[in-house]
Amino acid sequence: MGIKHTSHARYELWYHVAWGTKYRKRVFTDKVTQSEVEKLLREIALQYDMEIDRVEVLSDHIHMSVSVPPRIAPSHAIQILKSVSTKLLFKKYKFLKGMYWGGEIWIAGYFIRSCGPGLTKEAINRYIDEQSEEL
Question: Which residue among 3, 7, 76, 132 is least enclosed by CB atoms within 10 Å?
C-alpha cells in the first residue's frame, strides 16, 4: 500500500466501488462461492495493475476498496472488473446461464466514491467490513 509508481507517475488513488447483480437476484448465497468470486476479482485486478484492499461479496451485490493506476479511468476499471468477471463466472458456474440468459450478471450501473480529506480509505474499509449479511 502507500504511494505506488509507474514509469511516469506516482499515485495513491483509492475508490469505494459497489455494484449489484442483475435483477438483484441472490446468486452468491454460500460462503464458498463468495470466496471464489472474491478471489476471481483479485486476480482480474492484478492483471490490470489494480489493487483490491477489501472486498465483500454479498448474495446480490459487491463492495470493494480498489486502487487504480491513473492511466485507467475509474469507469473503465469498473468496466474491466465487471466484464471480465462475467465471462469467467459464466465459465465456472453453469447454473448462471439459466438465470441470466442475456449474458449479463451485473447491473449496468455502479457506485463509486474516491478517498480524500472527507473520507479516508480506513473509513471505507470499515464500512465494507460492516456489510456482512450475517447481522
Answer: 7
